[in-house]
Specification:
Length: 683
């Protein structure tokens, strides 16, 4: 295929796929099958890998992510990104309306009411209809360029559908994580033994700042657009700009409404105060905007906020209920969390029976006592919290809460390290929730991925004393678990049910435990559950040290020297590997045949044999030397300068223009990091 043909094909595929993307995500009316879509996307990916210089800025392949941003560049906003003044009462809204009326000197104005979406504000720059940059709000004057991550959000058009009135414009809106996606993510994290995320907004903000856009692409973020801006002030009203945005393919929430006066605004508030819980996104209030843009200009701004708009915050929903008692939960790490046991009460659409009391300091701060009437609030966070105690209804003189001294699960005396608020159970080795938590982590998806086992079966096997730690899984036999009967306690109903492992399940469990022995070293390392050694850290350690033996021999300093690994992690590794019990588990796992080193052989292929490469520039995922070694390990040849014998120039950032020019003049293909990876994997 010639350069010219490739250019044509890339252009058609890009446009076609963007259109189908729109039909699928915005209109919910796909006209081609997922299979057909994927086929065409693959075709485009291949062409882009072969001709990286022809990839278009609005290519749908950006949706899948893959680009790594080491550091987000700071960009100055073309129009400042201000925030809104807040109101909390009807009276304050009437005051706002009074200011608008006086400011305009007339009562001929209308409002547009919108919902205030609880996410992260974003500014999108378009030139000639194509998305150029996505920038965070930052301090309002300048923000971070997070374009690669923004491009993975399916409802943000990479190219708009309708002609915009101006060549360059900005669309602004709110990126958010739908409640359902957030709950699913947390469920998965719970299964994987990872800490739960507090709320969708913080999760959105954290996700947008991730370096790896591929993870962002998997996070199911969405975006509502509510502002259009250009130099020519092309629209007369907020309403008509919203209509244009929707027509151009932006995701505009249909919940906005034109209101003739402040009383109609109040009706809108009343209606949404309830209905908002049914929406896919969390909302924390409404935004009232003067509809007419010239009137907005006339009213102008204060130092921080527009005078033509204001937000009204919904009251945090709260309920009063009786504190029946306090129980204490022990986490996987031994951390103790006091939990308020409440008389069930309805709050924001769900029945609340429990609320976190966080730690001993919080109990003291609230001075809460058993039998008190407490106020429970559900803010943005998933766990409801006790905000205050109703002292007027306190009966008699109940005793202050005495915090437990020993572990509710294993009776060990609790410890509280200096400077830490949390109490811990130090019985790392045999405190049941800690032991179970570690085994659950070991079998979880990102570790050994033993899908046939779940927390319930693990608990059953533990109660029947068939397993005491993760290595015991590998000595389980079919005979031991077939038809095994155990009891299961259900917290929500406070009752016990009998369960048993059927023959087919038993066979599957034994088979999948055996299969897990094939998991690579980095997963085994992650599965060990060393504090602070998450998936990425485990991968880095495995990559650097290559084997468990090397890690066992490494000093704290040597561990710190691994790129991006700090003191806290290194110290935790050293402590973990000093404990005889942990070493015993490692040697049992080793005896069972698990991988304790990376299989170097696997990495060597002849895929690149006969090909000559030049490597230039800086790479996000590899050091340059490392990349050269990969080429050589896979049969390729690396030379220092470009000649007619060169097949590929692997180009990172900051490559000199002369190299590119030379490669172009000789018709040598230029590969970016991603295309190189693809070449290595697919060829
Ligand atoms: S308009 C001049 N409309 O609220 C400010 N903002 O405090 C124009 N927000 O930073 C903002 N939903 O993150 C506007 N329908 C909506 C909104 C909205 C949420 C957020 C946005 C903004 C903050 C203002």
């Amino acid at each position: 295929m010639t350069q010219k043909q490739a250019k044509e094909k890339i252009k058609t595929l890009t446009e076609e796929l963007n259109y189908h993307n729109y039909l699928y995500y915005q209109e919910n009316k796909p006209v081609i099958s997922d299979y057909e879509f994927d086929q065409r996307l693959k075709r485009l990916e291949q062409l882009e890998a072969d001709f990286p210089e022809l990839k278009l800025p609005h290519s749908p392949t950006f949706r899948v992510g893959g680009d790594i941003t080491k550091e987000f560049e700071t960009v100055v906003h073309q129009y400042r990104m201000l925030s809104l003044g807040n109101t909390y009462s009807k009276e304050e809204l009437f005051d706002f309306d009074g200011r608008v009326k006086r400011g305009l000197g007339t009562d001929k104005y209308e409002y547009i009411c919108e919902l205030k979406f609880d996410g992260v504000a974003i500014s999108l720059r378009y030139e000639n209809g194509v998305l150029q940059k996505g920038i965070t709000r930052g301090d309002g004057t300048k923000g971070d360029d997070i374009t690669t991550n923004i491009k993975t959000i399916k409802t943000i058009p990479l190219e708009i559908k309708a002609n915009s009135p101006a060549n360059s414009f900005e669309a602004r809106g709110e990126v958010f994580m739908p409640k359902e996606a957030f709950n699913a993510l947390n469920l998965q994290r719970e299964r994987d033994g990872e800490a739960l995320l507090a709320n969708p907004r913080n999760t959105t903000s954290g996700t947008l700042k991730m370096q790896d856009s591929r993870i962002v692409a998997h996070r199911k973020l969405d975006c509502y657009i509510y502002t259009y801006l250009d130099d020519e002030n092309s629209f007369e009203t907020q309403e008509s700009s919203l209509e244009f945005l929707a027509e151009a393919g932006f995701n505009v929430s249909p919940t906005y409404r034109k209101c003739k006066n402040i009383n109609e605004v109040l009706n809108y508030i009343k209606e949404w105060e309830q209905k908002r819980h049914e929406l896919i996104v969390e909302t924390d209030g409404i935004v009232v905007k003067v509809n007419n843009i010239s009137q907005q200009e006339e009213l102008g701004f204060t130092a921080k906020n527009p005078r033509w708009a204001i937000s009204y915050k919904f009251k945090a929903e709260s309920a009063a209920t009786l504190l029946k008692g306090i129980t204490y939960q022990v986490g996987r790490t031994g951390a103790i969390t006091p939990v308020a046991e409440l008389n069930p009460v309805l709050l924001a659409g769900t029945t609340i029976k429990r609320a976190s009391l966080h730690n001993a300091n919080e109990i003291e701060r609230l001075d809460v006592r058993i039998g008190d009437t407490v106020n429970v609030e559900k803010g943005g966070d998933i766990i409801p919290k006790i905000t205050s105690v109703d002292l007027s209804t306190r009966k008699g003189n109940p005793a202050p809460v005495t915090y437990i001294r020993s572990c509710p699960e294993c009776n060990a005396e609790l410890i509280r390290k200096e400077g830490e608020v949390q109490h811990y159970c130090p019985n790392f080795q045999s405190c049941p929730p800690q032991v179970l938590g570690r085994i659950e982590h070991f079998i979880s998806r990102n570790a050994m991925n033993i899908e046939t086992l779940g927390p319930r079966t693990i608990k059953g096997l533990f109660d029947k004393e068939l397993i005491q730690n993760m290595s015991d899984l590998y000595s389980l036999t079919f005979e031991q678990i077939n038809d095994l009967q155990f009891e299961e306690f259900d917290e929500t109903t406070d009752s016990t049910t009998k369960r048993s492992i059927k023959e087919k399940t038993a066979t599957n469990i034994i088979r999948s435990i055996k299969a897990s022995k094939q998991q690579p070293f980095e997963r085994v390392l992650f599965g060990l559950g060393i504090r602070y050694v998450g998936k990425t850290v485990a991968e880095k350690l495995a990559d650097h040290f290559k084997s468990m033996d090397a890690i066992l021999k490494a000093s704290e300093e040597e561990i710190i020297n691994v790129h991006e690994i700090g003191e806290r992690i290194a110290e935790s590794i050293i402590i973990h590997l000093q404990q005889p019990e942990n070493l015993k588990i490692i040697s049992s796992l080793r005896a069972a045949g698990l991988n304790f080193e990376i299989e170097e052989k696997e990495r060597r292929t002849e895929r690149l044999s006969g090909l000559t490469f030049v490597v230039s520039g800086v790479f996000a995922n590899y050091r340059r030397e490392e990349l050269k070694n990969i080429i050589k390990d896979n049969g390729g040849k690396v030379t220092g300068s470009i000649s007619s014998k060169t097949n590929y120039l692997v180009a990172g950032e900051n490559m000199g223009p002369a190299k590119k020019e030379k490669a172009d003049s000789l018709g040598i293909r230029i590969l970016d990091e991603l295309s190189f990876k693809k070449l290595l994997e697919n060829d």
